[in-house]
## 1
Amino acid sequence: MSARVTCPVLSTRITTAEAAAELIRHGDNVGMSGFTGAGYPKAVPAALAARMHAAHAHGSEFRIGLWTGASTAPDADGILAEAHGIARRMPYNSDPVLRREINSGEVEYVDAHLSHSAPQMWFGFFGHLDVAVVEVVAALPDGLLVPSTSVGNNKTWLDQADKVILEVNHWQPRELEGFHDVYYKAALPPHRLPIPLTDPTARIGDPYLRVDPRKVVAVVETRAPDRNTVFTEPDDTSQAIASHLVHFLQQEVAAGRMPADLLPLQSGVGNVANAVLAGLDASPFTNLVAFTEVIQDGMLDLLDTGTLRFASATSFGLSSEGVSRFMENIDHYKGRVLLRSEEISNHPELVRRLGVIAMNGMIEADIYGNVNSTHVMGSAVMNGIGGSGDFARNAFLNFFMSPSTAKGGAISAIVPMASHVDHTEHDVHVLVTEQGLADLRGLSPRARATRIIERCAHPEYRDALTDYVERADRARPTARHTPHLLDEALSWHQRYLDTGHM
Amino acid sequence: MSARVTCPVLSTRITTAEAAAELIRHGDNVGMSGFTGAGYPKAVPAALAARMHAAHAHGSEFRIGLWTGASTAPDADGILAEAHGIARRMPYNSDPVLRREINSGEVEYVDAHLSHSAPQMWFGFFGHLDVAVVEVVAALPDGLLVPSTSVGNNKTWLDQADKVILEVNHWQPRELEGFHDVYYKAALPPHRLPIPLTDPTARIGDPYLRVDPRKVVAVVETRAPDRNTVFTEPDDTSQAIASHLVHFLQQEVAAGRMPADLLPLQSGVGNVANAVLAGLDASPFTNLVAFTEVIQDGMLDLLDTGTLRFASATSFGLSSEGVSRFMENIDHYKGRVLLRSEEISNHPELVRRLGVIAMNGMIEADIYGNVNSTHVMGSAVMNGIGGSGDFARNAFLNFFMSPSTAKGGAISAIVPMASHVDHTEHDVHVLVTEQGLADLRGLSPRARATRIIERCAHPEYRDALTDYVERADRARPTARHTPHLLDEALSWHQRYLDTGHM
């Protein structure tokens, strides 16, 4: 009996990753654990990729539909993509190898709102789930599973799959028991009830995942780290963005539009987001709570200093330094962190009820406040929409942030027309670049254009944007609600493709 | 004492529309009742417009910010727009005169999700509300107000305005008492609780609106009809759309993805929506419920035949024939209809919990499933997003419907790239035209394109769309997730502007 698999039934299923991978067939839909490089299976994907390579070497097809929580890691998404073994992928990806295959047209990618992924799977939108491959920390004597460093869609995959493969990862601290809150009262309409969460710090479910032991066809023991997320130190640009944002929150509090301890914070993943968290840590704000997707290093800092008193999320997303710090002080974090299913962490009902302050990055925004979070030059997907739509649409207040230029100034993040729209003009409250902050609340499209160009565009592009608006405004005197020159609206992007500079 | 104003305090405030209009000043924000031409004030707007005309004749400015539930009528929005008295307008408009002023750049229009309009007003996004002008059916002895044929944002306007003007409309049937459900437990975060609605037929609030009588500066008695909505008989095109949709719902039930009595229906306003309702009436479906914005004639038909057992909405939107039918049989409808505030009728929490089937019209969709509901050729606003985003994003299943062409074939409703995006590719489940139905669930963008072109595009445009996709797909081999030719993506719209034909 393994120290981590103390369930008598499940301990009889302990086997190798290779034997487990044998149970996955060409054409299967496979639901894997994993969110922001945390809690994904470490061994079965490699064994499965080896089978795919072997099959392809013999001229047989071996490709699966791969569903996850969100992004995984090179040793999951990456290795399967290298084996050309992914036919369909949902709901989110950030792996560079897989991204290349999506953009080459090899992989069908369904880029979905994360709050939609589990429920729409129950509804039958994505087809049948054949196999679940889920990392856990331990299987208890009664068969309950201690979840790992992310919860994601694990509840749903375990529940819906015909066959379940568990990976029990001895590298993950056994002390993770108690960090999770898995809500088991979700139902299909017309049987749904209110989700009884009114405070981000509250527990509404169980600390454990459940699985029908009869479905568990393999248990694989591993000892391997999560993918490390690499953060860079905040640079001047991201610090300027953070400073504008924190200053604006202070103004909102002063204006009486927000409590002094703010409202629950959601923060996207990345360097700009981390800089914003650092900016909050350096601000007078205190006693904050987070209702977010991912706990990254910046949130750990805030928990350490006490600026943040609680974080609700669905996953960790830490650097190796962050992981060490978390592990060394794990008892300090227990009771201050809860990981929930992504259907709960991102639920519109809860985001709206709690009045979340949503802070997310973007690729570009147009002068009317439409935001592109997913596509480079209209066609190539970067990562995916993730939870940004769940949070932004339902937030009390939302921010979209980006440096005002990219590629050394060759690309403007403020463009005449977004080359792809993920967040519409109806959904975007505040844009922030290092140049400044544009508060768009209550403004008409033309008023937004003036403000965005003035406050957020890089000076190098400001005149050209103003020139565009002015000419568009004159061009069609009976169509001045959202003035556009349709033969020029996307010309900045086309020029970049043609010349390498907008 | 008036028969309809039996509240002693309020009866002392009875006055003329002209005297009431004197209490509204240049620069005020005015919150008026009204939704889909129902329940808007009938007398004060005209008196106010006369004051505006007089002021303008003397060279003084007189313009207001006008906030409503949604659309009103020629004798409210229209008459104020004709007086050039509207400076800012939110959250929805369908009046042709006002539309012209918005598109000429005279009026600042904030086109907002209807579920956002009241809460964001409480948050302070739109500024201070000076005056409310709200039509009611009666003021009871205890000061409670019997709401009229729409509830809209009336609860919020009455609560938030400094001064309140009531119009008591004797034309509206006194028997409307009991048709309303006004929820008074909404709060600002962090004090929000779950909204306790789990069944569209349930009552969670009061039949009455409340107002602080000290704020009521005028009570004006009127006797005037609501604006009549004119519906045309379903033509072949809308019948074909309805037939595809009803057939699809039958398939979904047969596949076990939906109960036999479906899930709560939301139906947009208009002739296509009415045709769909007629199609449902002619189908084997029975025992249905609606959780929607507007009760239009088609819903009355369904209630009459028993196909629909209950309708929850925020407003009526009836033809004159429909109004007569409703009035003659008002007792029959009582207990089968509830009108709620639009913050409740459209609430994401409820739409998602109940699992609504959302059916809305559109202006155009692109081949990747992005939907434009608001803008003609990218710049001129038509009406507004209304509740379509509230319902579509959170629906169990959503449909967007349109004839495949407009203007006698000169415009294709299926285009390479939408000239404005209100519902993103992440949010759109099913497109329907008279040509057929495209089920986009679980498809990647390129797979959607194939299906939309095949099933929904008009044959006259199909080859050109296929040609576009194929050339876009070849143009950038590393950007094939959502293939576009950015210098051609909007050329169909530009060609229409240049030549009158796409």
## 2
Amino acid sequence: MAAFSSISPASEPLTVMGAGLVGSLLSLYLARRGHPVQVFERRADPRRAGFQEGRSINLALSDRGWRALEGVGVADDIRQVGIPMYCRVMHDAHGQLTQQPYGQDGQAIYSVNRGHLNRRLLDLAEAQPQVRLQFGQQCLGIDLKKQELHLLDAATQQEHTEPYTRLFGTDGAFSAVRGALQKTDRYDYSQQYLEYGYKELTIEAGPGGAWQLEKNALHIWPRGQYLMIALPNLDGSFNCTLFFPYEGPESFAALQTPADVVAFFGRVFPDAVPLMPALTEEFFTHPTGSLVTIRCFPWKYDDVLLLGDASHAIVPFYGQGMNAGFEDCSVLNQLLDQHGDTAWPAIFAEFQAQRKPNTDAMADLAVYNFVEMRDRVADPRFLLQKKIEAKISAQYPGRWTPLYSQVTFSHTPYAEAWTAGQRQDAIMARLMPHIQAEADFDRPEVQALVEQEMAAR
Amino acid sequence: MAAFSSISPASEPLTVMGAGLVGSLLSLYLARRGHPVQVFERRADPRRAGFQEGRSINLALSDRGWRALEGVGVADDIRQVGIPMYCRVMHDAHGQLTQQPYGQDGQAIYSVNRGHLNRRLLDLAEAQPQVRLQFGQQCLGIDLKKQELHLLDAATQQEHTEPYTRLFGTDGAFSAVRGALQKTDRYDYSQQYLEYGYKELTIEAGPGGAWQLEKNALHIWPRGQYLMIALPNLDGSFNCTLFFPYEGPESFAALQTPADVVAFFGRVFPDAVPLMPALTEEFFTHPTGSLVTIRCFPWKYDDVLLLGDASHAIVPFYGQGMNAGFEDCSVLNQLLDQHGDTAWPAIFAEFQAQRKPNTDAMADLAVYNFVEMRDRVADPRFLLQKKIEAKISAQYPGRWTPLYSQVTFSHTPYAEAWTAGQRQDAIMARLMPHIQAEADFDRPEVQALVEQEMAAR
């Protein structure tokens, strides 16, 4: 943290609306730089007894997220409660398993509990004397001209007005701060839903808190038009998520009774059902979540800046939503290092110019990976292609990084990763017709083709 | 109109929100089919003395619009006050002119005054005994469950509630009806602005109402990053529109004083300036309009359907905004013919399924044509390519229709036209390197290439 203490504290107070994952991390970054930070959050304090988590979902932390956590010195702390997942394990309709490593030896994504991570970041933020957290503060509106937040205090039910000099909107996909920006002239905005919803379910821990599936893996039940996934928890259970069409012959609309659910799950997820004793109860009591991509521009307005889901909500299929939001914090911190802690207009402008194309690319990648996860990972040809790609990558070190690795295990800007990935996909499409088995890769004619493609890049 | 009288009148009253071009034409269609129609319009009656037109803009009516007008028997009537424009006339920075025909001999788009057309359609709608028009009725909100419109009466300033059984939202790009749909679950919505605004200006009539530029043409001053166009009026004047960046070295922001405007126009539009005596006054008193593309889905909700700009506002560069809205009316009428006047749920579902991909394609085409109009039409190579395309089209009748003609002079669905146009563009990109002048088209090697391309299609 030596770098921070060399920056002279700025007296100007900063306001953060939203104390979720991105808001709490951002507050920590800003406070460590010496800024007084005022944080408002709509929900109650998640660290209080009796707080009901909105979502108990697990998240997959990867390199971009870790770097952001390292920047405020909390990565080691979080790593202790994360479970490394080194591979995907695919479950077919007969319960047969196939696995595919995510990266090279030792590379993993980490299953982390959202609530735990959020509470830890709030503790750390609050430990900074210049951070003031206020919960139960719903943003009813913003007067962008007067620089005032209109808030409703949940405890007193009183409306109050808070002035701000600089406002960071980290209030998520349905951001009230963005809502104010959307009312300004010529505001580009888009919200697009998948025709799929999701339902959270549970695979229980075995006797003595044992994991009933391979612990260090992300489990996928790919079924073409839909899928279920499971991520491990520390207590031996797994959080499952079913991604499923709203309408159609196999859909939420088609499963109306416990008998429907039991019959359907028994048929398509036969190895999982015995591990899910609360299946029907959870299916009918847990809400069905929707899957939205939100894009907007600009992200800034005078002294207001959006970060995280507020400016770029994406679907969860690449496990990059939180990582992208955390990377926003790292990038903002870098810009503060470069420009100094008072050059806000230049920093806000450069932040949106730099981040917008990258989060747009990430939004596309997330939808692309939905098709991969629900369909392609069940195809032996696809898994063979992944193996061949790994061989090319090993044969040409530094010259070929698989797309998944670029997104997950690198800090290459998302847009660059996506462009490189599309080029590599085109090459694989030309190579694969010549390859029927892993060993074919070493055949001279295949090697000649690979060499030719690599020379042409 | 024989077809209409054979349909037995339905007693169910229909509600139309918005009496602009599409709303008034739709009301006419519905009334002629025997439906009682209740029409609400936010603005005052444009036929009343003292009504101030919001926009005096001219529109380019083309085949899709004409067919829709023919469907209610008003095409001949409108054609008398339209001015055919057979070609584009490009004005370069030295006042030199080049022209390019829009289609084959006799094919034209028609300059029509928006206000005149709207008033005429309102007259015709009102002449139907089962149509009831009410002006000054602002839609404040809609209760989709109770099927109620909340309106504010401009004259009395009283709010009132009107029930509806079937509601058609034809209230334009900033539709209040769409606003209600946007609040429903999982609503796809996008608004995207160009970084360009537009300003309406006037080229005055000459002595005795003479046209000071070629009357039967659409005039374009293409300047790479911006452009001005002019469409003829019956009184000898032209309506000009400058499409211009908001920001930058040549932009609205850069022209702050009358002297700035005179210097800029004198330099870049030297032949037009002498014909625009009110230039500086108009430049600073006329508003700067913005250019938005709006997409949304679904277009229907239970008994509500959006049509026209309310569901698919596009930028004006292909002259298809009104034509697409009018085509909505023709398509809805065809579906009523096919399914009968009571099968509304099926008709609404088919309408949006059929129209959505087409208006999405039209939105893309309109942006594509912006680049063509402001930049490519000034390029001699581009004009040569258009001539060669016309020759191919003549040589292979029925097998090659230029994209512009498919959009403007045909009823081919927009999405099909766009796909065919992209294929043809790719062919032209391969042919043009072999062609330096119009005569090259007849060279045997070029003819062989053309034959080969046509055989491969």
## 3
Amino acid sequence: MRRNAPKSVVKRLPVYLRILDNLIRRDVEIISSRALSEETGFTAEQIRKDLAYFGAFGTRGTGYNTGYLREKLLKIIGLDKQTNLVVIGAGHLGKALTRYNISKNPYVKVVGIFDNSPEEIGTDIGGIIIRPMSDLEEVIKNHNVRVAMITVPADAAQDVVSGLADSGITAILNFAPTKLKVPENVYVHNADLTIELQSLIYYAMEDEKQH
Amino acid sequence: MRRNAPKSVVKRLPVYLRILDNLIRRDVEIISSRALSEETGFTAEQIRKDLAYFGAFGTRGTGYNTGYLREKLLKIIGLDKQTNLVVIGAGHLGKALTRYNISKNPYVKVVGIFDNSPEEIGTDIGGIIIRPMSDLEEVIKNHNVRVAMITVPADAAQDVVSGLADSGITAILNFAPTKLKVPENVYVHNADLTIELQSLIYYAMEDEKQH
């Protein structure tokens, strides 16, 4: 069942989770899909369809129990137990990612940051020491790491990634501005900031033309 | 015509642009939509449809002239003339974005980075000095800035954004983990790293279950 959920649905699950966190903080116990729609910007129909991929969580006519739905979503996403991850590349972005909002989820933990630059190795990034690339495989194995974030330059990314699949990495968040070739059982998500920015510029210009 | 292009098409334009840059570097002058398909991972049909939104750029039976298509895409996206942008929030991520790959496009220029933290103000980030938020409006007006990247904490983001529309900002790349309310003529793209990471963890776990 879970494997049938389209990528677009999977992408919305963390959005629902965040909204539920906010609702629970405000002591809201029950929420209708209509109210969820107002909070998320997705249609109520979309929300019902999205959640139906994973089971029946709501009660017709009343809505969803926020605490119950949150627990189910944590489980569906895989945030109900600790996920260890590694950051590969200790440039500005790698450092930022290591320190940034990742630490805010108690179940997601950066267990290593790696770089080959001698000036960087040994530097402490919020309690995590930058280690040489030669230590990567050992850390992945010892901490049962499945998720890697790649922030190395484009021309180094493919070499880095080719070794990862053998070490047990199954999901990669790629910030390197290049298309990576990976085995079929590895999932790559490209978080390409240049591309985000360029498509944004298109909209900025649209507006300029209009006025 | 341009305004009719769906978001999904606009998102692919920078991908085509990058592929064309690579092809031109390798002295490839003509490329078929089939070969473009292999390079991008999108279907040839998709590519033909995407480009058809903006005009007729290919020759049936031969393909696209890489240099010509690149120039057209630069123009369509708005990268044929300089785009100035500001980074708001000088935490690790704001600093990384200021230094990161933005500088790699000669037509995209960070003209200011802003923060209210007294320890940060005055710090030099690759030649750009962190300035107080009170200078923001002046910089936006003086440099005719349309695009802002937001990296302030979630609880500060809405306040920051509310002032931006009045200053002339029309496109926002939002890294703050919160949904922003903006006037209709402002386009917001949420580049939420927590959400990217959480949907990635879903796929890492899928794989774990499968094996």
## 4
Amino acid sequence: MLRGRQVRRMRPTGIYNPTSTVAGNQHWGHATSRDLYHWENQQIAIFPSGPTEYIYSGSAVVDVNNTSGFFPNQTNGVVAIYTLAIYTTQAGEQTQEIAYSRDGGYTFTKYAGNPVISINSTQFRDPKVIWHAETQKWVMVVAYAAEFVIGIYTSPNLREWTHASNFSHHGLLGLQYECPNMVQMPMEGSDTPMYLLWISINPGAPLGGSITQYFPGTFNGTHFEAVDQVARIGDFGKDNYAAQFFYGIPGTEPQVSIAWASNWQYCQLVPTGPQEGWRSSMSLPRYNYLTNVSRIGYDLVSAPYNITGQASRELAFNSSLGNSSILLDYSTVASGALYFEANVTHLTAATLAGSVNVTFTSSQSGESVRAGTYVGGDTFLNRQYTRGFDNPFFTDKFSATGVFNETTGVWSLSGVIDRSIVEIFVNGGEQSATATFFPTAPLDIMALSATGISPNATVSVAVWALNSAWAGNENVNGTVVGNVTTGSATGNYSAAAVRRGALLFEGRMAGL
Amino acid sequence: MLRGRQVRRMRPTGIYNPTSTVAGNQHWGHATSRDLYHWENQQIAIFPSGPTEYIYSGSAVVDVNNTSGFFPNQTNGVVAIYTLAIYTTQAGEQTQEIAYSRDGGYTFTKYAGNPVISINSTQFRDPKVIWHAETQKWVMVVAYAAEFVIGIYTSPNLREWTHASNFSHHGLLGLQYECPNMVQMPMEGSDTPMYLLWISINPGAPLGGSITQYFPGTFNGTHFEAVDQVARIGDFGKDNYAAQFFYGIPGTEPQVSIAWASNWQYCQLVPTGPQEGWRSSMSLPRYNYLTNVSRIGYDLVSAPYNITGQASRELAFNSSLGNSSILLDYSTVASGALYFEANVTHLTAATLAGSVNVTFTSSQSGESVRAGTYVGGDTFLNRQYTRGFDNPFFTDKFSATGVFNETTGVWSLSGVIDRSIVEIFVNGGEQSATATFFPTAPLDIMALSATGISPNATVSVAVWALNSAWAGNENVNGTVVGNVTTGSATGNYSAAAVRRGALLFEGRMAGL
């Protein structure tokens, strides 16, 4: 696997409703982190200018060369690019606006010349901007959502944008394209990064609701060309939408993304809500790079970002489990979060057999969440045996099929379970799945077993307790207070409590 | 909607294992029907020539002009085109062979010059042949399964084939392409049919396992060109695979297809089995045509073929249900099969609200199967509340999203439930879903309700009992005996009992 650099500081801002636990009243929330797991809330970054305005998804860049002119004598000027959506009695225009920060991203001033792109559309949103060094231009991808078109615009200065090309009607359509990202992406085995176009769709995904798909390809400064006509899906669970890639990581290094871990089919209904002061969460931060999977070809690897750095203690380890199992009570793990790995090694094409299964059970209620992988074949994730939420769209079972790599001789399943969310990874992230779940009592017992594995193969397993991502920020009541603000154009906001580490935002997040 | 002609007689042959209820020992079974619901078993059509041979999927044509030379003085000569797969200690070569029938399709003679296409591949199968009048050539599509390529071959005589082009890496890949079909397909609102390329994938579908996708496009006799790079999925359930289109229906009329109603992830494990003498079933026969759905664009409509012709009596009817419900006990319906329709009419974009829900419940066990549609939005199918089969890949909930058509002002849900399979249709087949289910006791109570519908809209509902498709063929024990044969190259076969109308074949079916 490629290894990424240590990211010094990440600064996400994202769609945030400071007055409720459902979508609406959208602001840009803001938090900072040095490790992508522990986050410090900051003041709300961008406010709507009035009650008919919503601040929608977008992105941010560092304008090192002061192309915008906003930053004389500065190399750390930050420009945020976002969609301003108007809602009166009905949906109004969506335009692209910018705001700049001269204090390193803490406070933003809206550009007086806004909007920077206006095309008289009610379905035009979610700009993602990168710097294209070869042409010395900024490049924006933005969704003409209802037309299944991703527009590509270029700009010398972030203020004046020229339409360059469209990428349209590729892959799964659903009912709209949203939250496009275009980023340079390293290709394993090559020194030359490719480009990746990333398109979220909602509703109408194959599993129902929202999903994200991607297209490896090339980009010449104005036109993106996909390598083929294939629809590749980013996550085989149902709770991984609109991931955003952080800005500023060199294209030769693994990129980093964070997704919103829910689905529009039920995100407003799941049981966390008014009492907790939070509802949705974000996915784990992920390393991403392209690889060539045996026979299947292009595949975007998505693996937890430096998760071992968050381990607090080892709960179980066995370098030669054989066809056996481990059982552990993790009720004393304060964070409630575990990371596990099960690696089957020394495999050959002739010894592909058996499966590895993990089950997380509640000792109080008997509810469980289960995952398993058949060596060289299907992997499943099953949230059927939790009873805290019943909804016809809350699909219970997810699965994907991988391909064994004879060169490595390895088949592996790893994952993180964190109270009400589980993320699993096959073969280091060749496939990944994200699912929320809602038991009526906490899960606190883990069983991991291997069955039917060839005696010529080796099964090594380990389970670690993870640090709490938010304990350092909690108040005496155990609550982490959200993006408190002392004032805004539209009045005072009550604090919305948040929980779970990186997962500060109700909605989607724009990387900085 | 387009209306299809009455089909006089259909003659499917399909992959069939006469000695077991699991895949293996593949022959071509054979049955005939005048209505696509009542079927008469015929002798096995094509046998393997020895124990290392399997007869795999393919298709058949009527060689009216005796292009093959097999049929002097005949206009009803039938040629079957199939894959011969060799299995010894491991998978051997797959080649394309032909066999001809001079008695109207009852008995077949293998061509002495077989194979007609051989490329030294173990992953090369499922030929589907049509006649291309403009070039006066036969055209075959066939899968290079592991390479994600559909090969297009042409032939003047069905014996000599020339490779013309490849269609590759489009849509969802999964792990292999299988069972391609290319057919002329009428386009609603146009006098000129389009072509449709239909590709099944397995495993690795978004829902897990197997699924079918399609590509509208043009075909010039050698090259197929898709209208765009979109992956369109044929069915939003999990039990509709490898549908085959019947041969010989003019391209200006709706085409007819039948799918295999299971999923490779669990088809060998579902509870029907040795005791019943059958396991899988086929889908309802379907009318198919292309239409242009509001905003989404190209959509393949799939609706039950002449289902009202199979109604035996009306169980419920209400032309103005309002926000109310009907409840009926259908335990006295001998077939166990119902067709229902719920049409919400006189809708406008401003009155899209509410939902229509149907539930089929077992009075003995309380188990149920449920479906519902939110007017103008999501439709779901839920088999979660049946308990006869528990498997991590037996996904329980399926959903899709439709688009309201202001021109018609209609939103509708219809469907057929038949003991252990349910097929639902939104807006006359703009979306469709197929799901098998396995209750521990028969479902026998139906509830249909409308809630939250605008008072300005009208809800009309009807439920019909359906004729039994197989009662006419059953013996004194209530069993329908399968494809009995009096001898074969590999010995005698025990009869494999079959059930459920059109659903004669364990595996996939090739249309004739």
